[in-house]
Amino acid sequence: MNVEGWQYAGSRLGILPVVEHVVNISTDEEIKYQAKVNLLDLRSQQVVGAGFAICSNKEQGKKYYQEFAIASMAQTRAIGKAYRNILAWIIRAAGYEPTPVEEMDYGGNESSAKPAVPTEKKATMKAASATPVAEKTEVDEQVAGVRYASAKQKEEIIRLLNNPVITRQEKTKMLLNINRFDEERAAQAIDKLKKVIEDREDGQSAAA
Asked: How distant, in Å, are the alpha carbons of 124, 161, 165 from that of 177?
């Protein structure tokens, strides 16, 4: 997941990043910035997470980066890290690697063509990136004989879960299982959520 993906997932839950500070910790030999980002829950107006990150022109591939680019990357990494700290379980449940891609785009002083410690996880990520997501999903569904919930259905479920009448426990339970829903179960979940929201909103109106 790159930072845009993390921001999308967070925004669907009403959680947005706020940069607290970007500090220049450079030396005569190195351009180096540290950033801190807080995550703000728009409904409660409470800080629900934070992330720190550093970027330096000593990293591989950044030797000729200008200072503003180093400062910008520190902020980008801090945003991804902050979201990863609180939403990693959702991303993992969706079948993605939760480490922000901005933390994986360099390898110290080693050559990028010859990583120091090749891992099965990295090989899997490369294989996944070579295959379009839509094609991979279609193949998986054909093999399993199951048509899993579409991206549109999942987006609608997340939108409904963000309704204030839905409890945090109900939201967490459904998000943990959303990647297992087939099309029929997802449709049932959407209908059920709409009915629950309508009933609870009517109850609140009657109480008022």
From this structure: 23, 13, 20
